[in-house]
Amino acid sequence: MRTIFFGVVGLVAMSAVASAQEQIPACQEQQQLEQVLASDGEIMPESCRQVSISVLENNGDRLCLVDLTGESEGFVEQLQEAAVEQRWWILCEEVEAAIQAP
User: Fold this and answer.
1) Lowest CB count within 10 Å: 1, 46, 79, 102, which one?
2) CA-CA distance, 97 to 102, in Å (whole number)?
3) What is the pLDDT of residues 84-98, one digit of tens each?
4) pLDDT digits (tens, 9 = 90+) for 50-65
5) What is the DSSP letter of 55?
6) In terms of residue numbers, what domain contains 41?
């Protein structure tokens, strides 16, 4: 799950500026994400999914909703969604700052 989050973190800054909602690929392994990117999304390994990031402006702050639910409807995915929270609100600026940090 940590690798999915870091894949998402790398793209939150772009999605926050780009639009209110963005779909990006996220994978459990770096090599799998590289495969998705190299194939322009044609190849999507089983442990990868499309993650949506929504941006909400609220009182001058940009809040990002990272939704890990994806589009899979299988039994295993349903168990994961029931066991682990799939939607996370974060402050977009904190993610951007973490990406910029040396």
Assistant:
1) 102
2) 10
3) 677 889 999 998 888
4) 889 899 988 889 999 9
5) E
6) 2-100
Cβ pair 33, 9 in contact under 8 A: no
Separation between Cα atoms, residue 87 and residue 94, nearest integer Å = 17
Could you tell me the two tokens for 72? 């899979």
- φ and ψ at residue 24, rounded to 5 degrees: -135, 150
Other beta carbons within 10 angstroms of residue 35's beta carbon come to 17
CB 82 within 8 A of CB 69: no
Burial of 27 per CB tally in 10 Å (0-12, 13-18, 19+)? buried
Q: How far is CA 45 from the centre of its chain?
A: 16
- Say how many CA atoms lie within 13 Å of 93 toward its Cβ: 5
Model pTM score:
0.59
User: How many domains are there within the chain?
Assistant: 1
Backbone dihedral angles phi then psi of residue 17, each to the nearest 5 degrees:
-85, -35
Location of structure tokens 């029931």: 82
